[in-house]
Amino acid sequence: xxxxxxxxxxxxxxxxxxxxxxxxxxxxxxxxxxxxxxxxxxxxxxxxxxxxxxxxxxxxxxxxxxxxxxxxxxxxxxxxxxxxxxxxxxxxxxxxxxxxx
Length: 101
What we know:
Blueprint: H1 7-23, H2 29-36, H3 40-49, E1 56-61, E2 70-76, H4 82-96
Antiparallel strand pairs: 1-2
């Protein structure tokens, strides 16, 4: 089904779905990779591009740990309705071709 999505729509859906996953506790790049099957670079780029939708995502370091140890957190969904995204999560996952996580 993902082949029928335009590049723009798949990028938009991927950002919404990654924000949803982070909000649901999938808060690291390795966890996103495991849940979705996406490559590391795609996961990293998607997190970085959330700001383009005015979704504020921050990385919080674990206290006393190395600089790359921590988790991502959605601080603000901006103009996006997180309830709608949550209701559509299964459809987004299917459209993107990700395994059920």
